[in-house]
Amino acid sequence: MAGRRIDRCRLASFAALRTVEPPLDDLVGRVVRGVERRGKFVCMEADGLWLVAHLARGGWVRWHDVLPATALKTGRSPIALRVGLDDGAGFDVTEMGREKRLALWVVRSPEEVGPLAGLGVDPLDPAFTVDRLAELLASTSATVKHALTTQSLIAGVGNAYSDEALHRAGLSPYKGAGRLGRDEVARLHDGLVGVLSEALDRVAGVELTELKGDKWRAMAVHGRTGQKCPTCGDTIREVSFATKSLQYCPTCQTGGRTLADRRMSKLLK
Ligand SMILES: [Zn+2]
What we know:
Blueprint: E1 6-11, E2 32-38, E3 41-46, E4 49-54, E5 59-64, E6 79-85, E7 90-95, E8 103-107, H1 114-117, H2 130-138, H3 144-148, H4 159-169, H5 182-203, H6 208-217, E9 237-240, E10 245-248, H7 250-253, H8 262-268
Antiparallel strand pairs: 1-6, 2-3, 3-4, 4-8, 5-7, 6-7, 9-10
Helix pairs in contact: 4-5
The protein binds zinc ion.
């Protein structure tokens, strides 16, 4: 997109836009300087103004070489925002599903977006070393699963890739983050950087419609409750919470022990 001028912006989901000043239309006429990712935020700069998007769980950015001419129906379409460029190309920011959590900001600097300003280190940044990870984990009394998904410590890791990283490192999700030994931290570092780099390599050039399926097929434990662990053949277990669940392999990660499932214990009582 760099070097192309923004010709039009059409907001179809008013709830998604979290800022009023500067107005969205201030982007029109500006030339895109570049796009970058920070944690789970996508940031586009156009002549000193930034459009920042957090795609949440059901959000996508879809590129069009030729932007469709069809009119957008406010509140009726998955398309939340359409941006057209001066050469006829453009992109839609969409959100599938009922859970409307997609968020957009127009700001003069990405740091004005509160949750983005507080982001921790990106695991694919060279600054994310074993020492740095050890420091971050030592700073919290949370479980390692919780620490990995805390955006102010480590940016961009969610439920799925934290499950995968812990499985690869052979660590229990319930282990205290601050109680990991040096070799465990090193394994976790390798696991996390490994699963994320492989995921990035895999999705390059994959069609939008294939992307989600492709992501799930590559998972070793996440979303695979009841299936066989690809490493040891044990049955993958899960622990359920109110709105999500984590998966793990007892043989690879917990010395064969099954972790207490709070929902299940409640039922048994
Ligand atoms: Zn296993």
